[in-house]
Amino acid sequence: MYVNDYAILDGLVHVSILVNKDGQHVYWVEEPKLSKEEENILMRVRDELGKLMSARNAPSIYDYGNVREYVKGIAESLIRRHAPNISPEGARRIMYYVLKNTVGFGPIEPLVNDPRVEDVHINGPGRGVYVWHNKYGHIKTNISITDDELSRLVTLLSQRIRRNPSSASPILEGLLMPENFRVEMLLRDVASIGPILTIRKFREIPLTVVEMIKLGTLSSKLAAYLWFMLDHSVSILIIGPTGAGKTTLLNALLFLVRNGFRIITIEDARELYLLHDHWVPLVARTSEMPGVANVDLYELVKVSMRLRPDYIVVGELRGEESYVFFQALASGHTGLSTLHAYSAEMAIRRLLSKPMEIPATLLTSLGVIVQISVVAKGDEITRRVTRVEEVIDVQEDRPILNRVFEWRRSDDSIVNVNDSVLINRIIENHALQPNEVKAELSRREKLIELMVKSNVLSPSSVFEIINKYYVNPDEAFNELNERNAGEGK
Questions:
Q1: Is the Cβ–Cβ distance between 259 and 467 less than 8 Å?
Q2: Cα separation of 34 and 22, whole Å?
């Protein structure tokens, strides 16, 4: 039974989401079919391409964008020579297979080019390839990969991430550029049915809070609350399981920070993308070469404190870097990060336990814990912020939490369930007027709702409106009202 179907790669490849007799979703790929004449042309082009590439000085595989264009240019001239009268559609079909099997991802080329696919999982040769689809979760594809195809893919990806596959280093990980894909490979030394390969894809253009509100991930009221917290130096920890959208939400929140603040992001692999003029992105470096320093998250968090940041952002807390991060929060810096945990209580327990071992006294420097989850809606999956808790105190290693927002499955809504203790503290510490703070939160909520209504979706557009609001709130509202009026004509 068909559930959904769509085209990718400029219409060359069609994807169908099916339901099999066991009630499981199947990701079915249909690649372009070649005529006999096109198959013959493809064989000739492949043969000559191999000879020409070995005879010429091809760009380094590390410069993937250029090497792909280089191969494409040679292949185009060969297709014109062997088939001067071929149709543009026929030439496109041949080019697809040339690139797929020379500098592309081989059998999984359609999967890595499907924007709805977030992860690609290869569980060894001769086994079905799985994907994580943004609507259906983990589903099996109709693609399998042979031992030779998998060996070629391991070699190609190892070269591109500059790691040598060997028994001495059976676990390889790195980032593919310019695609911004994270690659994890486990060789047969540690994976008996291997090699095992996972490609995790990151969005080239990050989601904004406006898009996330339109998707139902969070509400305008919650977005206004988090924006207010960031403005008043309240640190935020985003928790949830793998693939819940923690980093996506983190990136979206950072677009609410006013331009001009010094933001330092610290990551294992570059995922975050900002537009701030004073943004400093730091990335850990793993080294196996003698004499070349291994620069991990711990070292980067330590050095970030000496760079006078307004916001320290750690992509994910996992180890000893957490202690330095919380020291930074305790010393007055504002921090944001993510953590794998299914609840605020579990997050606290993880932070208190090895290898993080955060002293309980430091946990009170954390302000808000935002829990995001993958939830099912019928046959599809989606993301929702399910709970927002304020860390009020820690007594005998037990956190005292105040739940401010929660998601209700019954009507798929995110509701405000308790008054904010932290907002009351901000009012007291900054000598603010409660009525003015209430009015400000309401005004920010209305601005965000107007951005949603006006379809202000791109990071640059959201960033522009947010910064205009800081300078002249009335002007920001007027611009959105004019956009909305223009679209209504």
A1: yes
A2: 33
Say which residue the tokens 């990151």 belong to: 202
Banded pLDDT at 165 (limits 50, 70, 90): confident
Domain boundaries, given as residue ranges, for the chain: 209-419
Residue 382's CB is within 10 A of a number of other CB atoms, namely: 17
Fill in the amino acid letter for 303: V
Angle between helices 321-330 and 297-304 (to 10 degrees): 20
Q: How far from each other are the two terminal CA atoms of the chain, in whole angstroms?
A: 42
> Exposure of 203 by Cβ count < 10 A (0-12 exposed, 13-18 middle, 19+ buried)?
middle
Burial per residue of 204-219, b for 16 or more beta-carbon CB atoms within 10 angstroms, e otherwise:
eebbbbbbbbeebbbb
Domain made up of 209-419: CATH architecture: 3-Layer(aba) Sandwich (3.40)
Model confidence pLDDT, tens digit, residues 76-120: 999 999 888 899 999 999 999 999 998 899 999 999 999 999 999
- What is the rounded (10 degree) CA torsion for 462, 465, 469, 474? -140
Predicted TM-score (pTM) of the model is 0.86
Note the pLDDT of residue 59: 64
Rounded CA-CA distance 114/107 in Å is 13
Dihedrals phi, psi of 331, to nearest 5 degrees: -90, 5
Do the beta carbons of residue 330 and residue 308 sit within 8 Å?
no
- pLDDT at residue 6, rounded to an integer: 95
Q: Report residue 326 as tokens.
A: 């919380």
Exposure string for 154-183, b = 16+ CB within 10 A, e = fewer: bebbbebbebebeeeebebebbbeebbbbb
Strand pairing class (413-416; 117-123) = unpaired
The whole-number average pLDDT for the span 466-476 is 95
Alpha carbons 475 and 471: distance in angstroms, whole number? 9
Which residues, including other chains, have CB under 8 Å from residue 176's CB and lie 6 or more apart? Answer: 64, 157, 160, 161, 182, 183, 199
CA distance 299 to 305: 10
Closest C-alpha to 197, from 270, 271, 119: 119
Residues in the chain: 489
Measured distance CA(310)–CA(83) in Å, rounded = 61
